Amino acid sequence: MKGSSFRLIGAMAVATGLVACSDGASGPATGAQISFNVATHATGAAPSRPFASPDTIVDGGGNVLVLTKVELVLKEVELKRQNDDACDSMAAGEDGCEEFESGPFLLDLPLGVGISHQITITADTGTFDQVEFKIHKPEDDGGAADVAFLAQHPDLDNVSIRVTGTFNGADFVFITDLSADEEVSINPPLVVTAQTSVDMTLMVDVSTWFLNGAVVIDPSLALKGGPLESLVQNNIEASFDFFHDDNHDGHDDDE
Predict the structure, then answer these.
(1) How much is the pTM?
(2) Rounded CA gap, 172 and 21, in Å?
(3) CA-to-CA dists, residue 72 to 13, 109, 112, 169, 171, angstroms
(4) How far apart are the C-alpha atoms of 39 and 241, rounded to whole Å?
């Protein structure tokens, strides 16, 4: 859906420190500075249709979807080194990736206009060509981390994503127990040196979630067992992007 007239971007940034995934220790005391930012859509990229905050998606048939809150549960967010296997298959002593959040943790995606800096982390040197993470449904029998998460968010038991808003004026709450491993390419790869200072943006295009082609759909049709459940889950899995954004404008610096 890149470049579509329906494009509204919700972006997310991880707000915890970087740790080495091989041993769980804290990240290097010195090294490259990588900043993560959060935005809703690219600065200056005015949509071709009326736009206001909260996010609004309109199709040619007059359907209007207004998103007022989007919550997403993630875990095991990692930067993957180029030409390395995943962490769980690393040879002893090799750092195949850098993990900057084990989770699970809740992201309340900031809907609306603007971009804001979230956190600066210190990373090891190397070349990274993917960001990997899991869309995760916390469960009360899912281990200590899930139990701790649910103690703070009991209403998200077996829920990985929750969206509230209105469809054609009627209130809706959409929830899903989608579990998925995401691998998003960094193109060109992120080359980290001791002198690197770079801003990266991890984004999710929430405007595509409830689209069937060019038609905005009723989110209730995508609830568990609904006729459009698979369609929306596929849209969600395809909605992530990760790119260089040193000038904080919500655009990929390399395009």
Answers:
(1) 0.79
(2) 39
(3) 12, 8, 17, 24, 19
(4) 12
